[in-house]
Amino acid sequence: MIVTAWNNGDHHESGAGYGLKVSAADRDRYFRREWGTVVLELEGYPKLVEVNIDKDSFWGLKCRELISQEIGGWLKRNGLAPWAKGKPPKFIIEPKPENRFFVRLSKGAPK
Questions:
Q1: pTM for the complete prediction?
Q2: 3, 17, 84, 109 — which has fewest CB within 10 A?
Q3: Could you report the per-residue pLDDT of 54-79, keeping only the tens digit for each?
């Protein structure tokens, strides 16, 4: 699935306020609310990142973001955030067993 980097409008040096936006179709196909959290393996990042998905904003019609300060830090360290207005980078998320996903930069995505 392809996801898009997201920011809440505040560009904190800590990486807070960043995440990855998932389409509603992909959310419904690959994610299960009963998991409570998902575990992301971010390409080139040494730690696994646990993200809460048991919230109405993720399962609603508008938001659908996987939000984590660690995602923001990863974006910043890789020179992917902040981005030019209207040009957030895109990523490929590959489902793994259970609630785990591997995240990598999509080819042709802006850096």
A1: 0.92
A2: 84
A3: 999 999 999 999 999 999 999 999 99
